Amino acid sequence: FVDHHKYVSNKRTYYGIRNMSDKLCRDNGLSVVVPGKGSKGKSYAEYQAEKTGTSWKGKLKIAVDALIPQVSSFEELLQRLQAAGYEIKPGKYVSCRAPGQERFTRLKTLGADYTDGRADQEQNDPSVLPAISGEVENMSQYDTIVLGYPIWHGQAPRIISTFLESYDFSEKAILPFCTSHSSGIGSSADNLHPLCPDSTEWLEGERFEGGTSRETLEGWLEEKIKIEM
Fold first, then answer.
1. Which strand (E) or helix (H) includes residue 164?
2. pTM of the full predicted structure?
3. Cα–Cα nearest to 144, from 205, 227, 203
4. Could you count the other beta carbons within 10 Å of the beta carbon of residue 124?
């Protein structure tokens, strides 16, 4: 080097080189790789395993993604994973091991969204309004809204509050239903009422087990509409 100093490899010099590399890429119209929040790198062996569909972490992620819409809490998620054959190791970092897997996989290594922290923080803060992807066109043409949601910590997820505050439900009827393996619909629907105008009519809702068939839901909906309408 010009200054006759040797290169020392550490985090400080690594980030310095990466920042210079990123700047050169931007200046020359090249893309910059941005590490995902809460994620970490992976070994070549892990990359190959995910590519061929044999990664234990990849299989666990698929299992968790499939169960999330069906459960009402992080504890229930772990119970369902255990029922599916996974061995659960509790502790500061909850870990899971599938039948035939040698080492446990920490849920936090799947990403920041695969821990109980985010859901707890979101549910405990009434001011949180998660963004919704997409929107309902011509909401004014609907007289009755069927509102379905899972139970999280005894209540509807905060994103339901976002939905109710995004449209005008004056003179409309809302028919709520929820999915849960333990909690009933309870006060979850009542706590949503203040988010709508006084002229909104809230119909009596229902709670269904996670995994309830579409035919069952459609049958309940048809019968409910006959009674209420």
1. helix 158-166
2. 0.50
3. 203
4. 10
